[in-house]
Amino acid sequence: MTAPAADPRPLTGEPVALDLLNTRWVQEGEPLDLFAGAFGLTRVEGLALWLESTGLAGRFRADAATLVHLLTVREALARAVRDPADESARALIDAVLEHGRIRLTLTGAGIGERPEFDDPSWGPAWTAARDYLELLASGPGRIRACASETCVLHFHDTSRNGTRRWCSMAACGNRAKASRHYARTRER
To answer: Which of 7, 9, 16 lies closest to 156, judged by CA?
Structure first.
């Protein structure tokens, strides 16, 4: 399986749940999907690239079953982030969480955790669902969609005062500032 040298997505490095949502993005007005068989990648190669970029590649295999489970949780997470009151999205996330559990361990450093799965192909989907729960526990208001009307990306706002608005200041934030500047100079 050959993967491109770089991940084509405009925003990477977010927590796993949001990074999964960001496998769909818009570029030059066109919707793109890392798992749709674009960029010279098959769907499973797109999954392999995502697993690599999130640090999950050594723990989970990129195969068709894993992709199906991951697409299921991606849709559930997208619905839950868009509307936290969506009961069917919550039920779907709960159903994914049924496929794994945390086993507490005692290590030399103290208490540890080890995830266990009834089927390893559920591992990445379960990991993303659990990560979403951790984000909710740490601050649900910090899970944000980019403020740009043309952007579909999500991020976890880790700014001190919680006022981050853009997925990337260099991209969406800069476009918004340039647009405001153009509007001001045009009015003069």
So the answer is: 16
Furthest C-alpha separation in the chain: 68
Angle of CA points 100, 131, 27, to nearest 5°: 120
The sign one gets for the Cα dihedral 25, 8, 144, 86 is positive
How many Cα atoms are found within 13 Å in the side-chain-facing hemisphere of 42?
A: 9
Ranking 74-83, 114-123, 176-185 by mean pLDDT, the lowest is 176-185
Q: How confident is the model at residue 37 (pLDDT cuts 50, 70, 90)?
A: confident
Looking at every residue in the chain, the average pLDDT score rounds to 91
Radius of gyration of the chain (CA): 18
Strand partners, 111: 106
DSSP 169: I
What pairs with residue 31 in β-bridges? 26
Q: Are 172 and 166 in contact (CB under 8 A)?
A: yes
For the record, the structure tokens of 182 come out as 């153009």
Distance in angstroms (rounded) separating the CA atoms of residues 5 and 46: 12
